[in-house]
Amino acid sequence: MSDFYKKILENNKKWVETSLASDPNYFEDLAKGQTPPLLWIGCSDSRVPANEIVGAKPGEVFVHRNIANMVVHSDMNMLSVLDYAVNVLKVKHVLVCGHYGCGGVKAAMGNDSIGIIDNWIRHIKDVYRLHSTYLNSIEDETERFNTFVELNVKEQVFDLAKTSIVQSAWKNGQDLTLHGWAYGLNSGFVTDLDVNISSDKDLDEVYQLKF
């Protein structure tokens, strides 16, 4: 057994001991169920930990992660998570969180073949195509990269708003608001991209304002 594997097993024991020391009923209470107010759709990047970023405890954030925090309408994994979060857990907020320095977004800016991930990155390339005139007008490569990260998040929020799951929730008067953030790896701070949408009317107004 590798030293790393032994270490993570030991870390688990220490975490349990620490949690029980602060609250003897910690795990018993967790096992009773979950009522998270937030669904987090984020990037799989290991440097972007959902709970830690927002200071949330276990049970407070329902999480879905994939390469470059994409909302793809044919992705049954994402749709299943969204459906459960909205219709069963009754979350009040769905947050798409991208991050500056995202490898998936960076790969979509080039033409190199990486492997099977090329098929996933195709969706990110579609976002670039939608905004190519604006993005190509940005001469500084870092600024263009950061802007692409932000535009990708915004487009995923808009795609989220168009899913039948979210549309049905709004039609039924459910309290549900969508948000978009970009996380700074080198600072720890998030940037609210001001795409906070809680109805079709909001969707139209925000889209016209942002594009």
TrEMBL record:
Required cofactor(s): Zn(2+)
UniProt entry tagged with the keyword Zinc: yes
Keyword vocabulary terms for this entry: Lyase, Metal-binding, Zinc
CDD domains membership: beta_CA_cladeA
SMART domains for this protein: Pro_CA
Top-level taxon: Bacteria
EC code: 4.2.1.1
Catalytic activity, reaction form: hydrogencarbonate + H(+) = CO2 + H2O
PROSITE patterns on file: PROK_CO2_ANHYDRASE_1
UniProt xrefs under Pfam families: Pro_CA
Similarity field: Belongs to the beta-class carbonic anhydrase family.
Protein name: carbonic anhydrase
Organism annotation: Flavobacterium algoritolerans
